[in-house]
Amino acid sequence: MSNKIPVGISACLMGEAVRFDGGHKRLAFALDELAPYVRFHPVCPEMAIGLPTPRSSLRLVKTQSGEISLRTGKSGSERDLTDAMVGFARERSRQLSYLCGFIVCAKSPSCGMERVRVYDHAGSRKNGVGLFTRILMEELPWLPVEEDGRLYDPLLRENFVARIYALYEYNQLLREGLSRGALMAFHQRYKLLLLAHSQPEYRRIGPFVAAMDRWVSLEAFALEYRLRLMSLLSHNATRPNHTNVLMHVQGYFRRHLTSKQRQELSNLIDSYRRGVQPLLAPITLVKHYMAEYPHPWLSQQRYFEPYPEALRLRYGH
């Protein structure tokens, strides 16, 4: 995974002056921390459908029939931009199917992922999704999509980056030529990471993979697996799940470690469980034992390095 990962981004988050007021919303995390590992593909849906900057602000409006429309201008002289935006969004989404993630601008009537203000006869409610982003997620349901504001949350940031790296590796597998062996090997590499994200979905995806041979089309299986994989990883990894994974890993070293070493590792895992130590503490000790007592299955697990360590995403867990 040496090449940069292709990720879409709202152009204003790249520092481009494309917002309705002629400004931008430069996202420092994207440009200062993620950029060395990611190749960004900026999109401004509003400029793409021919709107200038600066421009009148857009808004989502719920019609009497219950449909959501995208409009601009004052009441009485409004322009309905719904068809233009939907047409652009569908075409552009299909062109961007190679992406491994997308960072969108929060609260935007075109790009917001959640809690976008929607107007109706009773006023407004923050329960909408930007029209471009809604179409993007419909067309590419496996794609990790996240808002700029939510990426200030360390847990959501870590989850998003883990997902784009997983999807990048999986898309490489799809491009290089499918085989049952390659798919099974991929799933094996991700087992511990999947367990950390969702135990219920982990228990469901295992039998699904085991039944691979029942599928007439390997390509159809691979696409369905991608959906299930990314759905599972969309759940944030939790402290109880990480603890479960670490206790499972601990078992691989029992016959190699002294009683004192086993107790030290157990205590460190328990300290993490209680919130005293960060996740990095037990993982660092486990990695030390992995180097000293190599195990072929553990050494291939993406759980121990789901993304470059230099991103420092597990330091606050």
Automatic annotation (TrEMBL):
Top-level lineage group: Bacteria
Residue ranges annotated for the DUF1722 domain, each copy included: 191-308
Pfam families found in the cross-reference section: 2-thiour_desulf (PF04463), DUF1722 (PF08349)
Listed name of the protein: 2-thiouracil desulfurase family protein
Organism annotation: Acerihabitans sp. KWT182
